[in-house]
Design a protein that fits this description.
Helices cover 39% and strands 12% of the residues. By secondary structure, the protein is an alpha/beta fold. Bound molecules: N-propyl-tartramic acid (PT3).
């Protein structure tokens, strides 16, 4: 079977915190580029991802960058735009000796117009209703009861007057970024506290796109992106189409990867790491039919993991892929959002 088209969605690389908590000893001035910015570690992570993709698709992609072959779209954040731009050049495209980098065009839309790569999308009362109902489920109540003491600790130590899961989420994120950049944590942040905050953060992802009414949440969130990806796969599955596009690269966030994976029922409930990459490969089989293979790269030290769409084989026929994903895609989201 021959590879004919690839779509990859990745999270940006390592960054500075999005914000500090009220009593945080580190504030915006303590970060080289301020809050929410790609770090040099993040740049290295994405240069490595670019090298991985070039190697994986050597022979499929033109040796040198061909603007007809590759389309890059990013959310309108510095960290995602910069992550997407770190595509290594081929030899003859090096334009300055010793500079192993070349600019590639990265397309985007303003944040308030983004409806493909940023989740959870607001403007959906039905989704908000589902989230309220989720917070009444036994599972949610059990988790918040189990971690009651840690939520209380976070409230008192950080000066945050709310300790809903979302507030804890942002504290963990800030502490995680600070730990990754050798900024010593306050005494109350013990390894056990970080472990519990990590579990709550992962739970926060599960809640956003699952735990309760996962299919309906997918139709209102990640299904929006899944729909585009499935439409593109079908569009590319035509023999000798004059389409030269071979690789669609989407640069986004942890929530984007999680939302998309939840809509495919392949989300394993943990925050997608920096530069993690969801891969869709479309193949034309010898008999002229088409199949889709999915992979998830969340560890750059090993090969990407093959993912199995529930109800299908690892090399899932395109027809089956379309049929099995349909229930997670809304054909009129605005209507389904109305309450
Ligand atoms: C309000 C928090 C928004 N967080 C982000 O945008 C980050 O990019 C986050 O999605 C991530 O992938 O780190």
């Amino acid at each position: 079977r021959n590879l004919v088209y690839v779509t990859v969605l990745f999270r940006h690389g390592d960054r500075s915190p999005i914000k500090a908590y009220p009593t945080d000893p580190y504030q915006e001035k303590d970060w080289p580029q301020g809050f929410g910015q790609l770090s040099q570690e993040g740049m290295r992570q994405h240069f490595e991802l670019g090298q991985f993709l070039r190697k994986r698709y050597a022979g499929f992609l033109n040796e040198s960058y061909d603007r007809h072959e590759i389309l890059v779209r990013s959310t309108d954040y510095d960290r995602t735009l910069m992550s997407a731009s770190l595509y290594p050049p081929s030899d003859q495209q090096v334009f300055t000796p010793d500079l192993k980098w070349q600019p590639i065009p990265v397309h985007t839309v303003p944040q308030n117009e983004e409806r493909l790569l940023s989740f959870p999308l607001g403007d959906c009362p039905r989704y908000q209703q589902l989230m309220n109902e989720t917070e009444q489920t036994e599972e949610f109540l059990n988790v918040t009861a189990t971690y009651k003491d840690i939520l209380e600790l976070v409230r008192t130590k950080t000066g945050l007057n709310k300790t809903k899961v979302e507030s804890v989420w942002s504290v963990y994120d800030t502490l995680f970024c600070e730990s990754r950049h050798n900024k010593s944590a306050p005494a109350w942040v013990t390894p056990d506290v970080m472990k519990k905050l990590r579990a709550l953060k992962d739970f926060g992802f599960q809640v956003m796109f699952g735990v309760y009414a996962q299919q309906e949440k997918s139709r209102l969130q990640g299904g929006m992106l899944l729909n585009e990806i499935v439409k593109n796969l079908s569009k590319m599955a035509v023999p000798e189409s004059n389409q030269r596009l071979k690789l669609m690269m989407l640069s986004a966030h942890d929530t984007t990867v999680a939302a998309l994976q939840a809509s495919l029922n392949v989300f394993h409930g943990k925050q997608p790491p920096y530069a993690s990459c969801q891969i869709f490969e479309l193949y034309r089989d010898a008999n002229g039919s088409y199949s889709v293979s999915m992979f998830y790269r969340n560890d750059s030290t090993v090969e990407p993991y093959p993912q199995q769409l529930p109800g299908c084989s690892l090399n899932c026929s395109l027809d089956e892929f379309v049929r099995l994903t349909k229930p997670f895609i809304s054909d009129d989201r605005d209507k389904e959002c109305k309450v």
